[in-house]
Amino acid sequence: MTLEDVRIEIDRVDQDLLRLLNERADLVHHVGEIKRKEGLEIYAPDREERLLKKLIELNKQNKGRLPEKSIRAIYREIISAALALEQDMRISYMGPAGSWTHQAAISRFGNSVLYLPEASTEDVFERVTTQEADYGVLPIEHSTEGAVHHTLDHLVDSPMQIYSQFLWRTETVLMSNGPKDTVDYIYGHPQVIAQCRKWLTHNFPDVELREAPSTSQAAAFACEHPNSAALGTALGAELQGLKIIAASIDDSASQARFIVLGRRPAPATGNDHTMLMVTARDRVGALLEILKAFADHGINVRQIENRPVPVEESASQTHVRFFLEVTGHCHDEALKKSLDVVINDGDAIKILGSYPSSPWGE
């Protein structure tokens, strides 16, 4: 076949793709109508992951050329367009446009929904509570810094719950208006500079490092000042019109976990996790008794965080607070029995959300 023949075939395939995508959109529209009539959530994270896994396996069986990463990226946008068709979906996230949380949110919801940047964790909770946003995206854990306590503490006082979680590999890029050899100084958030210190020392030993209040602001500075560069996200580079001159420059791989904040727990899938807050009397063996209650019913406690009880609460001097992530869904009988044992021992429990387990994302 000649080049022109191949291009004609590509045009034919594109026409078929467009027809099938619109056919799929019609079906999605019907799904949205059914969900609204039955009061179901539009966003179904477990259904999405099952769909992606099925498509990836089908591609392997057919010996398709597309790698898993490409299939996920393509269908992420198809699913995003479907969400926008079912409902004018609004996603609130913490941080300015181009931040890590913004990029993570797009990796989960795609580019077809509306994103609402917020200045604080409180603002994200407020948007979701008042239904100005359908869901919120917040960091809850980082591989180098541990738990994000602001997020955990706000879950205690809010009726909102964790509806979904996702795990995401963060990647710092170096962006600039010009080529690498014209850079005289580099902007970056202090924490990001520290994470890339070895790489910067090796590749830019004579360049001045300048601190910025955020990665988004660092990108804005680099856009405004010639002969400069910035450390930040690929999304930040795109939004500022900067070129990525180096990627994956972190000294060690960095991973983060984010939650999708909603108004109810997600439906049970058979492969779920639940986040709990337990307030116990400060006594010898308190944590051991709590853990035993779960172990006796075959519940795995995956994570434990200890937080002080706020001083304004009457129990602040006599009680201690634990955040536990356990296997199972809050509606599972085994987990219900474990919680009953803990409550009968005189401890207080709040369920902060049940959600499908999630693989690492890109």
From TrEMBL:
<dbReference type="InterPro" id="IPR001086">
    <property type="entry name" value="Preph_deHydtase"/>
</dbReference>
<dbReference type="GO" id="GO:0004106">
    <property type="term" value="F:chorismate mutase activity"/>
</dbReference>
<comment type="pathway">
    <text>Metabolic intermediate biosynthesis; prephenate biosynthesis; prephenate from chorismate: step 1/1.</text>
</comment>
<keyword id="KW-0584">Phenylalanine biosynthesis</keyword>
<keyword id="KW-0028">Amino-acid biosynthesis</keyword>
<keyword id="KW-0057">Aromatic amino acid biosynthesis</keyword>
<dbReference type="Pfam" id="PF01842">
    <property type="entry name" value="ACT"/>
</dbReference>
<comment type="pathway">
    <text>Amino-acid biosynthesis; L-phenylalanine biosynthesis; phenylpyruvate from prephenate: step 1/1.</text>
</comment>
<feature type="domain" description="Chorismate mutase">
    <location>
        <begin position="1"/>
        <end position="90"/>
    </location>
</feature>
<dbReference type="GO" id="GO:0046417">
    <property type="term" value="P:chorismate metabolic process"/>
</dbReference>
<keyword id="KW-0413">Isomerase</keyword>
<dbReference type="InterPro" id="IPR045865">
    <property type="entry name" value="ACT-like_dom_sf"/>
</dbReference>
<dbReference type="GO" id="GO:0005737">
    <property type="term" value="C:cytoplasm"/>
</dbReference>
<dbReference type="GO" id="GO:0004664">
    <property type="term" value="F:prephenate dehydratase activity"/>
</dbReference>
<dbReference type="InterPro" id="IPR036979">
    <property type="entry name" value="CM_dom_sf"/>
</dbReference>
<dbReference type="GO" id="GO:0009094">
    <property type="term" value="P:L-phenylalanine biosynthetic process"/>
</dbReference>
<dbReference type="Pfam" id="PF01817">
    <property type="entry name" value="CM_2"/>
</dbReference>
<keyword id="KW-0963">Cytoplasm</keyword>
<dbReference type="InterPro" id="IPR002912">
    <property type="entry name" value="ACT_dom"/>
</dbReference>
<dbReference type="InterPro" id="IPR008242">
    <property type="entry name" value="Chor_mutase/pphenate_deHydtase"/>
</dbReference>
<protein>
    <recommendedName>
        <fullName>Bifunctional chorismate mutase/prephenate dehydratase</fullName>
        <ecNumber>4.2.1.51</ecNumber>
        <ecNumber>5.4.99.5</ecNumber>
    </recommendedName>
</protein>
<dbReference type="InterPro" id="IPR002701">
    <property type="entry name" value="CM_II_prokaryot"/>
</dbReference>
<comment type="function">
    <text>Catalyzes the Claisen rearrangement of chorismate to prephenate and the decarboxylation/dehydration of prephenate to phenylpyruvate.</text>
</comment>
<feature type="domain" description="ACT">
    <location>
        <begin position="275"/>
        <end position="356"/>
    </location>
</feature>
<keyword id="KW-0511">Multifunctional enzyme</keyword>
<keyword id="KW-0456">Lyase</keyword>
<dbReference type="InterPro" id="IPR036263">
    <property type="entry name" value="Chorismate_II_sf"/>
</dbReference>
<feature type="domain" description="Prephenate dehydratase">
    <location>
        <begin position="90"/>
        <end position="263"/>
    </location>
</feature>
<dbReference type="Pfam" id="PF00800">
    <property type="entry name" value="PDT"/>
</dbReference>
